[in-house]
Structures are given as C-alpha cells and as structure tokens.
Amino acid sequence: MQLEKYKIDEFNHTQQASHNRKFEFIAEGIAQVEDVLQKLVNFQIAIPSWALGTGATRFGRFAGGGEPRTIEEKIEDVGLLHALNRSSGAISLHIPWDIPQDYKAIKTLAAQHGLTFDAVNSNTFQDQPGQPLSYKFGSMQHVDKAVRQQAIDHNLEVIRHGVELGSESLTVWLADGSCFPGQLNFRKAFQNTLESLQEVYAALPENWKVYVEYKAFEPNFYSTTIGDWGQSLLLANKLGAQAYTLVDLGHHLPNANIEQIVSLLLMEGKLGGFHFNDSKYADDDLTTGSIKPYQLFLIFNELVEGMDARGMNHATDLGWMIDQAHNLKDPLEDLLQSVQAIMIAYAQALIVDRTALTEAQQQNDVARAQEILQDAFRTDVRPLVAEAQLRAGGAVNALELYRQLKVRENLIQERGLKTVSTGL
Ligand SMILES: [Mn+2]
C-alpha cells in the first residue's frame, strides 16, 4: 500500500487551525523554539523488522492479519510509518529472519521510502533448521570451541549482509548463561564470550560499531553471561574503541535506575545504542511510554545533558531503535504510539531549563531541582512534536490518519488475513 502525499496534506488541512492555536501557545513559552524543532525533525527512530507482525508470549501467538510476509513488505510497512510521522526513517534487520536476496533491489526499495538500514542483529539464541551444532547450552560462551566458532561465523555473515545494505553497526545479544548453580564456570564463560567477540570485532569494517547488549535474566534464570551494564562495559572496554554498550529498557532488574546507568555510560563514551520498550515486571516488551513515561523522560533528560556535555549529535551519534513485540494491538499502531512517546520524552528533555537546574543542584535546592524537571515533564509538548512532523512532511496526528485511511484493512486486503510475519 502506498500513501499518497495529498491524503496527508488533506488531513493536515482539516486540523491546521486547531494545531496552529496549540502550537503558538506552547511556542511562546520556549526559548529557541526553532532550534528545538530542528532537533525534533532530525531525530529518527529505527523500526526493527520483527516488530511488524504480532509477536508472541512464550505461550501463544495470535496473528493480526495483513502482516508483512517478506522483507519487501516489511520495508513497505516501515515506509508507511515514516510517511505518517517522518520520525521512523530506518529499519533494523534481523538475521536469519530477514536475509536479503537481492541487495540492490532492497536498497532501492528502502530508498524509495526514505529509509536507511540501522544496526543488523545476529541471532545465536535459537537453533535454525539445518544448523550443525546446537546453542542449547549457549553460543559464544559454549564449552565446545566448535559451537563458539559457529556463533562467530554467523556474526561474520551478518556483518557481510550489513555491509551490502549500507548498515554501519552490529548488535549482539546473547541468551548465554545458566539455569542452575554449578552449571557454568562464570569466569570461563565470560572469557570464552570475550574471545569470541574479539574475533567478531576483528572483522568489523573501520566505520562500524558493535553494540554489546545485556539482559538481567531470561531465558536463563540463574546467571546471564552478559547480565548487566557492568559486564557489557567490561567487554566493550576490552574489545576496543568500536565497541559500545547497548541499553535495552526492558533488560534490567526491577527498579534499576536506568537514567543513572545512561549518564555514566555517556561519561565513559561507551553508550552506543538504545532499545526502547516499556515494562511492568521484566522484559515485557510493551509499548514505549505506556507504563512509565516519567522514567522515559528522566532517561532522555540524562541523554540530552550527557550528549551535550560531550558535544554529540543527538540524531546520529547513538543508535535509536524500538525493540518490542506486540500481542494485542495492531503492530503498526503500537509502533506509531511508541515513536510518539519517544519524541515527546525527547522534546520534554530539550525544554528542561539546564542553567536553572545546575544552579539548583549547586545550591542543594532539592525542591527547586524537582520542580524544574517536573515543569518540563508536565508541559504538553505534543503540538511541538506535531509541528516538527508537519514541517518534515508528515501528518499532524499520525495515528488518527492511519485509522482514517483504514491502512490495516487495506493491508489485509492486499496480503490476506492469515499472514504470519517472521520473528519471535
Ligand atoms: Mn533488545
């Protein structure tokens, strides 16, 4: 399905007067509003290829209809999102779920939708059909060198696909760990993982980054070999300048102070990328901003402060991606909501009065510091985000237009009701 630009324009026209009123109201109170708007226009969040179909819990999967059946249809779906919000201009592929056959054709298709290829993701947490050795007891940590080699070779293959597509980063998430005390020698497991990653690192093109993702638990429940940001940072430091830690919001123990983790990783120059999602209990993969929007804002507050302190470009110096699975909602609606939640949190962080906050901190004025942060958080910045998306050619309200245009109904007509997209 192609979204004609005139339909977006028509829709925007019907909303223009009401939008202008709201925008002018908020713009008046913001210093350097043009600068904030430009940052919002530039900011792009990558959509993972596995989030476009209804995902699964460990117990069942309920297909939603009209799901993308091929990598081409996945690109088309991300293209639809991007046409609507102009804030999701990249796609992140997972190998082997999305192995491109014709690189040139895929790249052309992506370019037609204004999309680039974000990080490529390897998978050594499942056995694939025809795979000689099993990852049941881990991949890069495995006691058998032959299994480790298989995992290394897979990552090298993923890099080769990425190079062909113009991607510039590899994300490695390992499910490696143990379920029972005594099962693993922690030190050997870590050492094997490091040595395996070193071989992958050696194959990285010069302009590439490798992101080492951590996760506290699941699928292993006693130990995870890269279980927290300390273990990831240790690996990234040992690997070298092209290796970074990746923070997935759902991969922490309950109540972890993620904003503090972000701040210190940025200080060390070792924060590489982000996976957005939200959770109530663990790695729930719920819509970003649906459960803890204040935490999301606090994280962005540290991101903006920390990136500015290092003179980093907000839009391009970190990898921004959504990492979610959807059970109940239309995945495209869910992704539109997630992108919007991220844009809102980012906009709120951009309008924090940093000079006043620094002053309050220096004076130990705790109440004032809290007021400054909450003043930004409680500002309705939606018209600001909408203005940026309008200027970039998107819709003033992407989700509303998505429904008006009956996009899902159209996709079901095109692709059928019983389509199942590859992924979890
Ligand atoms: Mn992730």
TrEMBL record:
The EC class name is isomerase
Supply the EC number(s). Answer: 5.3.1.-, 5.3.1.14
- UniProt keyword Isomerase present: yes
In terms of superkingdom, the source organism counts as: Bacteria
- UniProt cross-references to InterPro entries, sorted A to Z: L-rhamnose_isomerase, Xyl_isomerase-like_sf
Which controlled-vocabulary keywords does the entry list?
Isomerase, Manganese, Metal-binding
- What GO molecular function annotations does the UniProt record carry, in alphabetical order? L-rhamnose isomerase activity; metal ion binding
Q: What is the protein name stated in its UniProt record?
A: L-rhamnose isomerase/sugar isomerase
